[in-house]
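CORE FACILITY INTAKE
Project code: CF-77B
Contact: R.S. (postdoc)
Sample description: multi-component assembly, two entities in total
Requested service: structural model of the whole complex
Turnaround: standard
Below are the sequence entries exactly as provided by the requester. Do not edit them.
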Amino acid sequence: MSAVAASGFSGLFSGRPLRLLAGAVLIVNGMFPALWILFTSLKTEAELTAKPITWIPHAPTFANYMQAFSDQPLHLFLFNSFMVALLSTCLTLFISVLAAYALARLNLRYRGLILSLIIAVSTFPLVTLLVPLFEIMRTLNLLNTWIALVLPYTVLSLPVCTLMLVSFFEGIPRDLENAAMIDGCTRMGALFKVVVPLCAPGVFTAGILAFVNAWDEFLLALSFNSNPSLRTLPVGIQLYQGEFAFPWPVISAALVVGIVPVAVLIVIFQERVVSGLTAGGIKG
Amino acid sequence: MTNTSTINAASTADRGPPAWTRWLDLGDRALAVVLLAPAAILLALIIVYPVLRLGYTSFFSLSLTSGLPAEFVGLENYSLMLDDPVFWETTWNTVLITLITVPGALLVGLALALLANLPFGVQWPVRLSLLIPWALPLSFAGLIFAWFFHSEYGVVNDVLMRLGFEGIIWFNSPNWAFAAICLTIIWKTSSFMALIILAGLQTIPRSLYEAADVDGAGRIRQFFEITLPLLKPSIVVALIFRTITALQTFDIPYMMTGGGPGTSTATLAMYIHQNTVSFLDLGYGSALAVVMFALSMCVTAVYLRAIRTKE
């Protein structure tokens, strides 16, 4: 991020006021929707339906948050989302560390083919497998369990994480590993005691991407887990809509609750997330 | 690699690890099999077997609501599909969403990236405002923008009216509903484009622009002759990924309109979901999914070729 190269375009914005304008455009574009939802969540029903609509809440209230937790089991939605995301992140990391090590360190005859396959899987439309996955989960009695989501979500993030870790592993000098093995480590010992700790930032970044992917997924969660106590956040959040009523302040409060955990991750680890997104693999 | 193996062998001979760990000291080949096995097993279970099963089921009449056993019907599901106006409508909507939002997100993303590449004193607010839309779940974005476009209390109509326009009842007309969905998708996906393009921009050496200045090339010409050509690789990769995800569009229209009014904003993914989960018509749902699978495989093939030519 530090080495900012000038593009031909930046000449147009070399003045300070114009630069501030550019910054304002970026920030409004990125933050306004989340901010607007935050404002809505703090409004009373009366203020919400006042005309003309107010932008900043006049009398902020937290009542909508209370109601979001009491109308629906929001804490369960959060818990399910968190557990599914955490479990699939751990599984993704374990599997992709092993695979990436093999691809980065061993002389594989089919390395090019395997890498192409991984890229092909990363573009795979999981939606098309809705029917067979639904059938498989039904046969295995896994509908309405965390596992029904953990396994597909792992596949969702596996290619990106593997490609990212391959490039991280390739950056670790082999000598360190060899030294560890001379000192009596097995190869697997060297992997987990030397290579993985050295790659910790990379492994961690891959983990964040996997977590966000799983936290965001909607279609499979909607299709596989219809039991109210097993719904994840994106699925549960629809339940606030009644047949005719649309309690926007309460929905907004629930949305804010759902945005905060990931927003905190992003704020703390923003630089890592950006480098992971742009370096390793790409999935939007 | 032989290098490592010899050292490895030597170390085992000298003062090797305890005997019980030796079973892990496999040759490269065997070790590779062990390390790649978990990934292979998972992909076999979640992708390979389901793909085969998908093709197989698409030749059967299999409806869980009828309670009848699966019956082989050959290509009947496919011929039903050709006569199904909803199939054509949802496929057309999906293609249209792809054709509108992919270039749209590219243009907006390019603009955002150029703005974000300016020499700001503080970097984190800019970075954060590109990351937040990426991290926001698609389904949340759909709900938030449904509220934005609310005909009475939405902020979009509020701004329109303050500017002296009439408010629009967005979700009552197919065209306005479609426009609202496309705008939302473009907003949600352009930030990610911007991040990728920004990373590309930051690899362009400043000296190229200085040289162009000396040669008397204007800013516009520099943009088209230096910036764009050098950005091409990162743009191509981002575009193809975006195209594949656009073909799978589900969350945003589902949350914003539920496909309505009628089925005017429903996508192919929504139709597959409806047939599978709501109607439990697995045979027809599979045939629809095969079509989508074929569509995205074409794009993937283009992608793999683009990468190979890049290398």
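Facility notes:
- Residues 1-15 of chain B have pLDDT under 50 and may be disordered.
- Chain B touches chain A through 124 residues (CB under 8 Å).
Invoice: internal transfer
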